[in-house]
Amino acid sequence: MKKILTLILLLSVSLMAEVLEVPTVNLSLSAPDTPQALVSSINVILMLTILFLAPSILLMMTTFTRFAIVFGFLRQAMGTQQIPPTQILIALALFLTFFVMEPIGQKAYDNGIKPYVAEKISYEVAFEETTKPFKTFMIRNTREKDLALFLRIRKLENPKTIEDVPLSIVIPAFMISELKTAFEIGFLLFLPFLVIDMVVASILMSMGMMMLPPVMISLPFKILVFVLVDGWNLLIGNLIASIK
Q: For residues 14 and 24, what is the distance between their CA atoms, to the nearest angstrom?
């Protein structure tokens, strides 16, 4: 009986192999026949490169770093451990970044990408017009001291106009300026919650409750104060107002 079942199974597999044709994939590289084909290939490569570098561009040339760091400081100051979750804070920082950077991205698209797709300008002009709104935004939010630092490292002369500042100088200067601004805002966030912790700890010590952790008592008060002053509205409003 087992031999018969084995024979039937082998016959069915062989019949299925004859009926089903497995498709073959042929990957080959060939030279473009026309200039239009070459341009299309280059456009695809550029698009893939931009998609690959999108996370780095998000961190380097937008306000995402400032938002993410400030929200992290807020959670540490309140002492709520993992509440709100990291995913929520990152998503909030991401959407706020899109909200702030949307006019700049639209301007870059209208001045650079759209004319290039319509074949009205060249690669060089399209790159310059696309990066110009971002460069202007970054320079507005960058301290002169940070720009001077990288210009001095490169041993370059002081630029006379914004167009004279290389993008390789603007990006790192903007990043360290964003880090400094985020840490300043984080310090200001810590102060009121630190006062609450000190007041609660002093009251517990005066009452002789040495074994009771002050965090257990101060945490509800910090949450209550944050809710009563409408903390999220104040924080996000001031964060966006701090962007030039």
A: 19
